[in-house]
Amino acid sequence: MSNLMDMLCKVRDILTSKDFDKIKNNLFLISRLSDEIRRQVKKNGVGNLKQLEFNSYDLRELSEELMEVIKMCEKKINVANILKGLYKKDAIDDKIVNEFTNISADYMRVRACLTPSHSMVVFLGVLMNLFEEQAEQGKIDNVLAQAIMEMF
């Protein structure tokens, strides 16, 4: 297995573990993976999708796993949920404010880091799927495909 597939498998394992600390500590790897996927698609072009080590299905699964973690973060940084949890405490003091700030900041940072990766993976996954279908039908428009690839 290549480095890219190793990285893809590792990231998927991290995301499916639902271990927030593990996810938080591997944000750079997740970002690096989406950059490498983009680079590989651009490098190989649409006409050579079969040469890639991954396909649109791999990207679809990755995008779903990224979205699950993003949703998990959104639930944690939901204003109503945060306030409900804080008001269960006896008194709002500096300790509670500090706890809220630290925890919420982590979830906000993870969500902010994963969102661009998710967007890129979704876009490339759909694009690859469309071009895979066109290639199977023998109707791929190389001019259009090249123009789209230049956007990257």
What does it look like?
The protein has 152 residues and is an all-alpha fold. It has one domain (3-150). Helices cover 80% and strands 0% of the residues. It contains seven helices and no strands. The protein has helices at 3-17, 20-25, 27-44, 56-76, 79-87, 94-137, 142-150. The longest helix is centred in the last third of the chain and has 44 residues, at 94-137. The radius of gyration is 19 Å and the shape is elongated. It starts with a helix and ends with a helix.
Please specify the SSE layout and strand pairing:
Elements: H1 3-17, H2 20-25, H3 27-44, H4 56-76, H5 79-87, H6 94-137, H7 142-150
Based on the model shown, name its key terms.
single chain; 152 residues; mainly alpha; elongated
Largest sheet: none
Name the helicity range. over 70%
Secondary-structure element sequence?
HHHHHHH
- Count of separate structural domains: 1
Low-confidence stretches: none
What would you report as the Rg, rounded to the nearest angstrom? 19 Å
- The termini sit apart by 26 Å
Short characterization:
The chain is an all-alpha fold.
